[in-house]
Amino acid sequence: MSDRDALNAAIEKYGAFVGLPENDIMIDLATKIHKAENNDFSTSVKVVKALKYGPDERNRIDVYSPANATPSSKLPVALYFHGGGMVSGDNDINPVMYGNVGYYFASNSCVCILSTYRLLPTARHPDGANDVTSAMKWAIENCAAYGGDATRITVMGHSAGGSQLGTALWGGYLRDAGIQEKFACYVFLSAGLWYDVLNPPTSINMSNYHGTTDIEKIRREDPLSTFRRADKETMASWGKMWFFLSEFEFKEIVEGTVGCMEAYRKTMDKFLLMECIERENHVSYMYSLGTKGNRVGPRLLELVTESFK
């Protein structure tokens, strides 16, 4: 069985996975494909790691840019927040992930900024939303130094990263920071927008993150509930948003995205933009981003390279 066949088999087997062991298996399988393809970006992409956007150790950014980019290049920018259930994840969880995201966009004439944020056990709501807001402000103020155009930044949040992005946008953190309207598009990739507070591991992680065992309080503070409370004027102010789900997605993620769709349709009388990624699961399409046959990379590149102005 080839590495690609093994990954495809695991995608179907772990379509509804919720645990770290299954996640580690997906990482290992996708990493094998990256290594087998052996893409060499050493001369075409410049990488600057561990730039600080805040005081905490987790307030770190890595920037990937075309080697020939200059401050006058005005390239589109992809700003990416990783997943990990608010307990794990980083800008580089192994020598391949998530450098694959940075290399993919930078090798396609974009600047890519990878950002991490505070996690459990020390983080508490709304630390993640505050970190995302600070990182986005950093991107506006600093991307030009790496060849980026501050008026063409597309923000992407995968899984828990999408949860933090949703809270930052819909909870008013970006508005209060004066940066909400400065981004070309907000992209939610299998985002954690609704919390299954009755079942582990979410029930455990969210009780810790929100600092309470009060289920109703946690539900009020989740991104979907924040989204639903917005009026028409507020929803309109959020600008362009794009949602992605995988075909083999698990219920918690589907419930959050579909809930946002329903709330937006009821309030705005039109549909949010959403796509389903064929034959992928919750993590596979990001772990294999940049490999041959990856289904979401070209679509995300298309979104990033359009200005939506």
TrEMBL record:
Secretion signal span: none
InterPro entries (UniProt xref): AB_hydrolase_fold (IPR029058), BD-FAE-like_dom (IPR049492), GDXG_lipolytic_enzyme (IPR050300)
Domain of life from the UniProt record: Eukaryota
Molecular function GO labels: hydrolase activity
Gene3D superfamilies attached to this UniProt entry: alpha/beta hydrolase
Keyword set, alphabetical order: Hydrolase
Start and end residues of each BD-FAE-like domain: 61-163
Pfam families per UniProt: BD-FAE
PANTHER family from the UniProt entry: AB HYDROLASE SUPERFAMILY PROTEIN C4A8.06C, KYNURENINE FORMAMIDASE
Protein name per Swiss-Prot or TrEMBL: BD-FAE-like domain-containing protein
